[in-house]
Automatic annotation (TrEMBL):
Protein name: Beta-galactosidase
Pfam family, one: Glyco_hydro_35
Family listed: Belongs to the glycosyl hydrolase 35 family.
Keywords: Apoplast, Glycoprotein, Glycosidase, Hydrolase, Secreted, Signal
Organism: Hevea brasiliensis (Para rubber tree)
Amino acid sequence: MWPDLIKKSKEGGLDAIETYVFWNAHEPTRRQYDFSGNLDLVRFIKTVQAEGLYVVLRIGPYVCAEWNYGGFPVWLHNMPGIELRTANDVFMNEMQNFTTLIVDMMRQENLFASQGGPIIIAQIENEYGNVMSPYGAAGKAYLDWCASMADSLHVGVPWIMCQQSDAPKPMINTCNGWYCDSFTPNNPNSPKMWTENWTGWFKSWGGKDPHRTAEDVAFSVARFFQTGGTFQNYYMYHGGTNFGRTAGGPYITTSYDYDAPLDEFGNLNQPKWGHLKQLHEVLHSTEETITHGNITTIDYHNSVTATIYATEKGSSCFLGNANSTSDATIDLHGTKYTVPAWSVSILPDCQNVAYNTAKVKTQTSVMIKKKNQAEDEPSSLKWSWRPENTDRTVILGKGHIQTGQLLDQKAAANDASDYLWYMTSVHLKKDDPIWSRDMSLRVNGSGQILHAYVNGKYLGSQWAKYGVFSDVFEKNIKLKLGHNLISLLSSTVGLANYGPKFDLIQAGIPGPVELVGRKGDESIIKDLSAHKWSYKVGLHGLENKLYSLDSPQASKWQEHDLPTNRMMTWYKTTFKAPLGKDPVVLDMDGMGKGVAWVNGHSIGRYWPSFLAEEDGCSIEACDYRGPYDNNKCVTNCGKPTQRWYHVPRSFMENDVNNLILFEEFGGNPARVNFQTITVGSVSGSGIEGDTIELSCQGQTISAIEFASFGDPQGTTGSFVRGTCEGSKDALSIIQKACVGKETCKIEVSKDVFGSINCDSSIVNTLTVEALC
Ligand code: GAL
């Protein structure tokens, strides 16, 4: 997907692509590196270069990014004597080793701008300033070391550190956030730079879909450049998908769409992509003046300001209104300009308004899902199945490792799998103080998923959600006299990626694990934490690579008695690749939680049964005015957090493909099917003098749903005519101009749509909605 995404980024007006480097992906095992296939960093940077764009390389190597363990390989955690992100020789040696490796790799390929390459900026660490104080003096020493280590690599381009208000020279402190206009770097000679302008927000299992409006993103960018900003990067411009086990959190979803200008599938998220593209064009047109001009700011009070950048050759002006409710009229050099609330107008020549952040002139596209045209799904999908073999763990309690304590999952499993079995046995005699009719098992967990079994029988499960790092599972149990087996399966949903000392947040079962016996008012506790525990990493089916066609056990699938709502079950089917080129999604409606593989490629964790919170969604259109945060403008309340899963076309063969599911909780595959994503309808509005451009992005416009020149009302999908209308038939004019075409342009004027008798307070507007 890289070339297409990079091309669309360039078309969107970007000058550079910023990317993190994921240490755990490139050094999965200590000193064994992987830069193959999609991990080929050099190829990625050269692809960006070939498109004529620059690169900002955020080496980190701690990256956060809602990525498993913030990008740290878990083997780091397991090195003797190590402490992460602080002045610790073991850690610093590993960090220096990886950072140097990346820098050398770039240098060898002449990729730094100082060598004629595309990399103009490099980053060391990531937002350490946000978490530094708990590390005390050692934190400050580490930070200084990061700076001098990076500096000693002589990359020939500036190094940045984001959110680091004490960044030592020559490191440049940069800003991250939804707004950075009031940011000032600590060094007065540093440029004002913004490494992460959050275009939306990430999603967690059980969380709603965050959206940030195009108007507000544009406002934040224009304000940043009005207030002297020199570099601004979108986080994310394209967020994509957390395939495999890359999602962190814990509880970050597989989708990392982020409401970014290029959506999860690489489609244009309109109007955001286009509204920002226009902003970029206008900003580029002011480049000479805003980079060289003298700055004058006029304060009109009430958060209204004008900024004039002037050179001898000319000047550019920004008129800003940061008031969240009232529009402002600004008198600039004798001319009056109306600036809507929460917006910035840009006048490249200080006379004509070329752009206002609140006036969206780009079409809105509504994406739809279409059935797989290659076969009649879901009925064509013939499923076979097999149980996950849990006999050794649930009945026999056999593991690979044994110790007399509860281990952190990171230590026991070294991130080889989400799954770790903890097994212990308890011998009970009648005279044991806890022996009673009322006994329970209590497990102090880490907030990750837990499934408990006692004496071969399933007892129950528990899980938490994003932001919860400890929980308690307690359930009544029946034990027998003599030997009892307790088998606990911990299933992680990504490892923590953010916060002071996040790397020490426990995964799995920190304990204690207790048996509680109740006799009347008295509770007696038997702590099993220091018992002999056996551990088994992973699942039987994963070990035998059931997800792969080359599995030695590929034949043992059964076609009869297909179970539903059965825990720990593998399902398999074949499907025909959807026709065409549109992105493909797997609809997991009806399934519980697990992992899906297409032709052996993990498309990530699925969990459609985890519904998003009920509250907080509004049916009213989102108001772009006022400060944004990720609880504003959310959708998808009460629905599956994520029902559709991206299957890149590069994972699929042309004809028959293989789909394998591991279902952990129990589900029904009867409704599982593949769909394609495409533009369903497009709409746009403009006032007299504007030109509306509609595009079905590769398809042709098939019909015009709505067209009105006057004062049309409503929003996409529900437009209605207002009180007045042009004298000519707008619908047939637009049908003639657009139907059958991929793109059409319509000039909004009385010449085209006829005279109009609207009330004088009405701004004559053309609104069009077309089907693709
Ligand atoms: C920032 C961090 C990013 C990402 C973002 C939230 O603090 O630098 O990596 O985690 O928050 O999406």
